[in-house]
Design goal:
alpha/beta; Rossmann fold; eight-stranded mixed beta sheet; globular; DUF2974 domain-containing protein; AB_hydrolase_fold; Mbeg1-like
């Protein structure tokens, strides 16, 4: 059974003419967004800094990270596969931002990965890590219309689009990162939305009922590609109206949330599962009922109580 890690390893010497740029490439780039590049002590790394990934993670550089919440064993392997890849040899990183503010329960990171040969530019929003702040922001989405990271995400995208008016971008995110991407799209002008060619959401919470019926959302709905694992928990929170591709996974329960556990096919697609598990369907129903019948204060109390344990 193969995952995106196997896909990267097996195809690292294949050009894009030999193997088309595909949904697994986009997913791999999104997963790369979890790497806290600031921990590599890169001189000048900020939102105006641009460099090739090869320059950051050259063969003679030891890749040691202290944040094991973000840099799991699988993500360490992913980074090394990118380092050794001819397929991604001209991959660049730019507009890197990473912020954590416990006072405002805020955890935000975003960046742009580009492949000049393909004119591919992908804005990636990082999802949550396994810290309390990260989980709290995930669950805050159930009772807050807008969280601190939403405002940062909107500003991030608007700044990039304004500086590159003739460019088009793919927008992507896993977990909370996907919610940031989706919410941001509903807050862009029509001309800004036209600069986003597609939106990839990986097991991410939806948006509010009001937002999903907005004119801004309806303009971009056809651009959305949504993926959730068979036993999705986070991805069935809040409102979605785009039918997802249900992906088979190596693991079960909450561990299916990790994209590095999702299965892939030999012809470069995610492996489809037939339907959501009973657990996921029950959670989807429970979340929707909570949102309907509980007040925002009651939802907040549930979240705060849960996070005490």
């Amino acid at each position: 059974m193969a995952t995106i890690l196997d896909y990267l390893k097996e195809n690292k010497h294949k050009s894009f003419s030999e193997l088309r740029f595909n949904e697994l490439d986009i997913a791999c780039l999104n997963e790369l967004g979890y790497i806290p590049f600031e921990l590599l002590n890169i001189e000048g790394l900020n939102d105006s800094f641009t460099t090739t990934l090869k320059a950051i993670i050259s063969q003679d550089k030891q890749l040691v990270f202290s944040n094991h919440f973000l840099v799991t064993k699988e993500r360490q392997i992913l980074l090394e596969q990118f380092r050794d890849s001819i397929r991604f040899e001209d991959l660049t990183l730019s507009h890197y931002v990473s912020e954590t503010n416990p006072e405002y329960d805020k955890q935000f990171a975003a960046m742009v990965f580009s492949i000049p040969r393909l004119s591919h530019q992908q804005i990636v929003f990082r999802g949550t890590d396994d810290t309390i702040i990260g989980w709290k922001e995930d669950f805050q989405l159930t009772y807050q219309t807008e969280i601190a990271s939403h405002r940062s995400a909107i500003g991030f995208v608007k700044t990039i689009l304004a500086s590159e008016t003739n460019s088009h971008f793919v927008l992507s995110g896993h977990s909370k990162g996907g919610n940031l991407a989706l919410y941001t799209m509903t807050r862009l002008s029509k001309s800004e939305q036209n600069q986003i060619s597609s939106l990839y959401l990986y097991d991410s919470p939806g948006i509010s009922e009001t937002a999903i019926h907005s004119e801004a959302y309806l303009r971009i709905r056809h651009k959305i590609y949504r993926y959730i694992p068979q036993e999705s928990i986070v991805g069935v929170m809040l409102y979605h109206d785009v039918t997802p591709k249900i992906v088979a996974s190596l693991s079960s329960g909450i561990m299916q949330h990790a994209m590095t556990n999702w299965l892939v096919t030999t012809n470069a697609y995610f492996s489809k599962a037939s339907q959501l598990s009973s657990l996921s369907l029950n959670l989807e129903y429970t979340f929707s009922e909570w949102i309907k019948v509980l007040s925002k204060q009651e939802l907040k109390l549930i979240v705060d109580t849960f996070l005490m344990f």
